[in-house]
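Researcher: Please generate the 3D structure of the following complex. Treat every line as part of one assembly.
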Amino acid sequence: MKNAPKTKMMDMTCVVCPIGCHLKVTVDENGNFLSVTGNRCPRGEAYAKEEITDPKRVLPTSVKVIGGELPLTSVRTEKAIPKRLIFSAMKVIKSIQVNAPVKRGQIILENILDTGVNVIATRTVKKQNGK
Amino acid sequence: MKKLKYDVVVLGGGAAGMGAINGALSQNVSVLLIEREASTGGVLNQCIHNGFGVHVFKQELSGPEYHEMYMEKLSRFDAMYETTVLNVDVKSNTLNTISISGVYEIKYGSLVLATGARERPFEALRIPGYRPAGVFTAGLAQHFVNLENRLPGHKAVIVGSGDIGLIMARRLTLEGVEVEGVYEIMPYQGGLTRNIVQCLDDFNIPLHLSTSIVEVHGKDRLEGVTVAKFENGHPVRKTERFVKCDTLVASVGLIPENDLVNETIELSDGSGANVDDLMRTNIYNVFAAGNNVCIHDLVDFAAVEGEIAGKNAAHVAKGKELPERMGILKKGEGVGLLSTKYTIAAEPFKLFVRVKKPMGTTILRLNDQKIKTVLAAKPSEMIEVKMDPSRYNMKGNLILSAMEVDKI
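Model: Done. Output below.
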């Protein structure tokens, strides 16, 4: 057969709910979403599509605090960012430090890697002398 | 020795302890928290990953956010931090504590045990070899990385696929540690599927099922481990493989922490406190909530249990008599764990069930009554069952079983 379309099957576990359906996703030769089987509800299809096109994750990590009662404050991206940017985002976050006091919810870094998503502190860190 | 007196005393200020304070304060009684650490929050402080609070706060929070937001809900209560409880005397309703400010004798109206759990150590696996530097429990490694800004090493192997181990696989990878793989002795995962996907698959960290460690190498510092395939709990010969690493992280289970009361409080075979649906133990004014009852999947469940325990503890402290137990819950076929042992059979309550092994479509039965169907039952994922005395007979012996549909 000539010019048969080259499709690829991918295995995936849906993480939308705790059932964890085992998905079989078919993509074309350019990696575009074609179809999915194995999902028990429509949310599985939406998850599979995003996983194929541009999967996103919330990134939780920590940032160094100067003069705080703790050496670190925990931080996270306010919303999910593209998974492919996670290591670049880690590099940027590791390069910064903040001065105590740090308040929970405080923006530590605006618009990380032009994603439109801020990095916020998830922990309050007082100054070392308790202020 | 200084003496104090409170209506409700709460031991442990983690999620369940905070819940207990909340529950007790709602009934206008005096509350004292006794906490080993310098602040409340327990393990939430080091769990910087997101995924907490879906039920209580209706959003996905990190552990520290959950802790701070829960504390903001609480009005004023007394607390003794960096304090150790030496003993509890349930006959005289007193306990003794020690801290830098001295020794105290504290009299309570009711007591809430919210002491959580401790990690099963790597040593419990009885694996040959030295015990060099570089062997950590997952929670200890998490404490170092997330609270002390220290990395445990450069190349890590994780043994056990419990949730904290999976979370640490991702955390260490993000911090530049090479995670060689996760080794699980069972033929199925220990943690939640979403953690397998988000923590291992996202970072191409392999999960080796039916595989575990058979030898530890290195004398002063860990130099590597030998792994092997396992069948029916035994290593298979000639499947051994050496893995070079300087860090071994063990995520091999949590044990309910009840050492303080193990001679007075009735415990389950998993060493959790046996409670009824009021979170009451075998002693009328001693309550228990959280991971010292049974190991929960979600922090919300521990907090909610704490709220029930705190509220009922306050009732008893004020002299109210609580209803008697009418039913006793027993593990039937396929069931590995039940969160509640007894019921007063008067009000609906939430029961958490863990199955023994992964199953497909599974029917849960209370004696011969069908009470719930689940599409996929896994030991790593608790099943929530609403126990309603207006729908089911909840008196006498109650055997809860879980059976796969096509096997019935």
